[in-house]
Amino acid sequence: MTMTESAAQDAFLPFARPDITDAEVHAVAETVRSGWLTTGPNAAAFEKEMADFLGGGDLTCVAVNSATAGLHLAVEALGIGPGDEVLLPTWTFTSTAEVVRYVGADPVMVDVDEHTLNIDFDDAERRVTERTRAIMPVHMAGVPVNADLLAEFASRHRLRVIEDAAHAFPVTSAGKLVGNSTSDAVVFSFYATKTITTGEGGMVMVKSQELAQRMRTMRLHGISRDVFNRYQSTVPSWHYDVVAPGFKYNLPDPAAAMGRVQLGRAVEMRDKRRDIAMRYIDAFMDLPVDLPSVPDDPDGHAWHLFIVRVDPKRAGHHRDQFIERMSEEGVGTSVHFIPLHLHPYWKDACGLAAADFPVASREFERAVSLPIFSSMTTEDVDKVIRATQRVLAP
Ligand SMILES: Cc1ncc(COP(=O)(O)O)c(C=O)c1O
Fold first, then answer.
1. Could you state, in order of their start, the residue ranges of all structural domains in the chain?
2. Is the dihedral of CA 169, 171, 177, 183 positive or negative?
3. How far is the CA of 89 from the centre of ligand 1 (A)?
4. Which residues are marked as active site?
5. CATH says 22-264 is which class?
6. In ligand 1, which atom is closest to the CA atom of 337?
7. Which atom of ligand 1 is nearest to the CA of 201?
8. What is the pLDDT of residues 303-354, one digit of tens each?
9. Helices 319-328 and 378-392: crossing angle, nearest 10°?
10. 102, 144, 145, 249: least CB-packed within 10 angstroms?
11. Residue 5: pLDDT band by 50, 70, 90 thresholds?
């Protein structure tokens, strides 16, 4: 690579970058030195600290190696299976739907609200059948799903509720943190680009001890006692019972050690993202784009993503051209998400047509996510603002 090429690459602002300090590096190094490379005391402490953060009481947290694993464990523990249908928004990552397939059930895609991009309960109402067993709403970009509407809808149709909170940590809805609800399970992601990270990882919040126990068993091969307990307990450590054909979904301790430090910094990092969002909103107010709405409650948005809608008629560009022009300006962007009904597998497997999801199909053409991560410097934010202004200048 030449000096000029490397300078150009340095100058490129990626769409996302984790916010890792010396504290995380130190915690991981200490754990590695301790010899606990698999699930151990750090994972147990991380679960406890996460449950306390979310409100304590009867909340239990189960650490896993991805949100996808957590969603799968939740669907499995609830006994959802062949013949069952699960409602979920078409505007999500494929994980939300794929776990429904893992257990042989049918995901039923639902259109979204045009402002929040969260599941549209009126459309969900139209798609309920006698086979509907559960609903899996997604708190898109960090905007909480309306908790009252969700609880009312689920109770009226006698549905199980699994919240996909991959984007929603930490965020409050009606004075309560997402994760402290009456839902059966709430699943967080700690993937590398998420609001707190362990590289790969996730956490499931459950209230029922029975569900928590099933998830703990199934996350480690269906073995009745997990590794940590096996080595702590007075029962001989070599003995274990396999009670089901489980999975390999446990979170290793070095990742958990990183997660504990990130958890301690979660609010500070969210506040930094909120400050970035406020700067964007001020700067883009007069540009020909639709901006995300700002909730009255300052803690009411996790600001995991900053999604703008580029309207070709007003902006003079299609979203795709906007992405290209931003890249030429040295700014990485992304699109969250290509709705499930536009992907070949889901389209064919579930017989879906774009016309059945008018809002998602229309908004997908306009949506683009700008960089918003807590390790952005003031100069990084200035760069995004200048680039967006140049590209969209009337
Ligand atoms: C909405 C949503 N659900 C689930 C996931 C899966 O998370 P993980 O990568 O931790 O399995 C993601 C990850 O991008 C996501 O965006």
1. 22-264, 266-392
2. negative
3. 14
4. 194
5. alpha beta
6. 16
7. 10
8. 999 999 998 888 888 999 999 999 999 999 999 999 999 999 999 999 999 9
9. 130
10. 102
11. very low
